[in-house]
Design a protein that fits this description.
three-stranded antiparallel sheet; 472 residues; mainly alpha
Length: 472
């Protein structure tokens, strides 16, 4: 047998030509793993994976057997059944056409060929031939082809044979062009919707497993869009497998794959039972919040904020909120900016002590951009929480910002001061802010003197406005 069992994982042995059993052989095309009865195996490296992902490989071989005909090597070769009842003259003209590949890129022509060939010949010959052309990179209109394949089940015999179309669509999920991959994903989602449950479990779930284990990054990114498409329609056993596949991708070495896996958590939160989400998916969210890649951490924070509204308050406070709070001291300015923006928008409700801790982390940051952001959202929080909250918790941080060494931050603090005077009144400013700035005017520190001059200019403007109002 070409399998080796370890303590925690199952790995494929690497052979060039090998028999799997007396009946089935694995054939590794340049981009996909195919199980074929009675053929030689051309095998190349396949990613190792947890044992749960390769369960019942022999039965999977039997499932895929019906949908895997022989491969085609000639660019203009379409071998047909002798007993077909199609229009022979049309078929012969198609087969002998020197520009068949170019003509197949015309979607109306492709549909016409499939219609004339009939469902059986389309399944056995046209679809594998298209798969070969995709692998050989001989087709240029791949987006159109990916879209057409989503409605091609009528040409292969109906939903019962929709799984035949998984092979060419698998190749299209691995191309470099993003819009082609997305078109292929949408077609796969369309096919999944029309397939019977038994066909989903026999063909689509093994297909997802194959993409999950594939050594091509694009395919592993694409498969994340398919988990929730079929999750609610399959039995609990296969639902558990889908969760395992997702967890496997969450540990991928490439950030792009982890990002796509993270994106799935929002959809999973809407369909997965709470106990399953808590035990299997929440740990993945926490893992993403500490990811070494900044973009993954940004995504993790956004997801945590989004799904916090979907769960009850107690679970959010005990489990989701601590994950959010991990971002307070994140080394990335962007992550912390997203956090403070969502706090200011009341999308995150923090205890007052953690709220102050978060804001102070911004104000004492080494990054002037973070301090500038802190000044902006200090005003928003002051308006939301009121004057007493500002006097108790925000006044000292605000005074620090008024004398910031970065002129941009200092100017933002002065703009905030004008808004606060409008909100809290000039009496408040004269009681709490004016004495402080008057005191620092005697300082030898250049930044303090600049702050006082800016303050004096702001006060003059505000007082001028008040005097005009009194004259009126």
């Amino acid at each position: 047998m070409p399998f080796q069992y370890g303590s925690t994982e199952l790995q494929f042995c690497i052979f060039n030509l090998t028999f799997v059993t007396s009946t089935y052989l694995l054939i590794q095309s340049p981009r996909s793993l195919i199980i074929v009865p009675g053929k030689l195996v051309f095998y190349s490296k396949v990613r190792s994976c947890p044992i749960c992902l390769l369960r019942k490989v022999d039965s999977m071989a039997e499932r895929i057997e019906q949908g895997t005909p022989k491969t085609y090597r000639g660019d203009n070769h379409l071998e047909l059944n002798d007993d077909n009842n199609c229009d022979r003259s049309f078929i012969e003209a198609t087969v002998n056409c020197d520009r068949l590949v170019n003509r197949l890129e015309s979607m109306p022509f492709l549909r016409d060929v499939a219609l004339k060939l009939g469902a059986e010949n389309t399944r056995k010959h046209l679809v594998p031939y298209l798969t070969h052309l995709i692998i050989a990179e001989q087709l240029s209109e791949l987006k159109d082809l990916a879209e057409v394949l989503g409605e091609f089940e009528i040409y292969v015999g109906g939903p019962k044979y929709a799984h035949i179309l998984l092979l060419p669509l698998e190749e299209l999920t691995g191309v470099k062009v993003g819009n082609v991959r997305m078109a292929a994903i949408k077609s796969l989602q369309t096919l999944a919707d029309i397939m019977e449950v038994i066909d989903l479990e026999n063909y689509f779930i093994p297909f997802i497993a194959s993409l999950t284990m594939n050594d091509r990054c694009a395919k592993r990114c694409s498969v994340s869009h398919l988990f929730t498409t079929v999750y609610m329609r399959v039995s609990p056993k296969y639902q558990s497998d889908l969760i395992d596949y997702h967890c496997f991708l969450s540990l991928d070495s490439l950030p792009s794959v982890r990002q796509n896996a993270a994106n799935n958590l929002v959809d999973f939160s809407e369909i997965v039972h709470m106990s399953i989400f808590d035990s299997k998916l929440t740990p993945r969210l926490e893992q993403f919040s500490f990811d070494q890649n900044e973009h993954v951490r940004i995504l993790a924070l956004s997801i945590a904020i989004t799904i916090s509204k979907k769960f009850d308050v107690s679970y959010t406070k005990q489990t989701i909120l601590p994950i959010v709070l991990n971002s307070i001291n994140d080394p990335s300015c962007e992550v912390r900016s997203i956090l403070i923006k969502n706090i200011a928008k009341d999308l995150i409700v923090l205890p007052e002590d953690r709220l102050i801790c978060c804001l102070k982390a911004f104000i004492i940051s080494d990054s002037w951009k973070m301090r500038n952001t802190g000044a902006i959202y200090l005003y928003i929080l002051a308006i939301q929480k009121g004057l007493k909250f500002f006097e108790d918790y925000l006044e000292q941080p605000f005074l620090i910002l008024l004398t910031d060494p970065k002129s941009t931050v200092q100017q933002t603090a002065m703009d905030v001061f004008k808004l606060l005077v409008t909100e809290f009144g000039m009496d408040w400013a004269q009681t709490y802010i004016v004495p402080y700035l008057t005191k620092i005017s005697y300082s030898r520190n250049t930044y303090n003197k600049m702050a006082f001059l800016s303050f004096a200019k702001v006060c003059a403007t505000l007082m001028s406005i008040q005097f005009r109002a009194l004259n009126i």
